[in-house]
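To assess whether the prediction recovers the assembly geometry, we first specified each molecular entity separately, as shown.
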Amino acid sequence: MYGMAMDTRERLVESTRALLWERGYVGTSPAAILDRAQVGQGSMYHYFRGKSDLAQAAMERTADEMKRQIAADMSAPGTAFERIRSYLHRERDVLKGCPIGRMTLDPEVYASEPACEPLDDTFQWLCETLRGVLEEGKRDGEFVSSLPSAPVATALAAVVQGGYVLARAAHDPARFDEAVDGALELLAGFVRRSHD
Amino acid sequence: MYGMAMDTRERLVESTRALLWERGYVGTSPAAILDRAQVGQGSMYHYFRGKSDLAQAAMERTADEMKRQIAADMSAPGTAFERIRSYLHRERDVLKGCPIGRMTLDPEVYASEPACEPLDDTFQWLCETLRGVLEEGKRDGEFVSSLPSAPVATALAAVVQGGYVLARAAHDPARFDEAVDGALELLAGFVRRSHD
DNA sequence: GTCTATATCATGATAGAC
DNA sequence: GTCTATCATGATATAGAC
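The predicted structure of the complete assembly is given in tokenized form:
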């Protein structure tokens, strides 16, 4: 499989993923997709019903890939706190923003039930995963038992999404890191002084 | 002034503000602006040089209004923690998202130096304001002195922006409230047990 | 399967009448 | 100042050749 040249359909999906990330749905034209994929117009309408159908396939793949990435970050060895830090501080192309999060702001995506499904699913899954790690930490005596894992998990997911926004406003990835550091400092307040 | 009918220029700016909020810059056409403002095409090009010039005026006004709103939230009576909660839990049209934050994701806005200026300015100002309130709380003995106010201020600003994203993904404003509650619970860990 | 017309409509801006 | 043509361009989809 590896090293195999991408076939036409594949190039269309990858081209669309890149453009949706950069420009969103309303900002991406079929012509730009075809140009980037080096594919003629006919091919797109052969494999897909149109722009929205192609975008759906692209978003579903992006959602799947993001879940894989998060799972990898969070299943690294180490304490619960370290695993969460590992996710929050993973190397990112911060100024490009989140390929999933940015789609939620697109008016046409927001209005489409099937288009929102992978986005909602990804964030539900992320929050649930973070909550699981926090719960593990509580069970292992790493975090104090009063840590409210569900809202804190949601807050952590929000800090990542909001960190992208602050960084883009300033054209400075350091704003993302600062937000994440602030969240980790707050979370560190719930780490037990001494494990038994 | 009050009760005065909006003049043409004013209607154009307000119409643009509403549409930028709903659809972003690339998703908003001059025709839609004119239609909503009930204004003819000629008027727009009389008062403004074009779409981008009008959008600039609209974003600057939105930024100004947001800063006024935040200042009002955060200068309410009460402890530092209460003032921060008052900002975070202010009544919002959560599913519409943040009119400033959403613009940062727009590719054309992001690429334009003057367009980004009011966005960057607003978030800088917000983080600085939050940091000031946290510092006050430390000075008054409300927060423990180890609270790192700058990164925590950035994290709080990020939670708000990210809360909008999570809420829109789920079409459920409760996700915003959950994120904000998580952040407040974390912050509460830094409130001194007993003030002197 | 992939390509090149082609059709239709929207976009963003201009010109010129009133 | 405001309006209604008008224009060049691009967006989205279809048709039909190869």
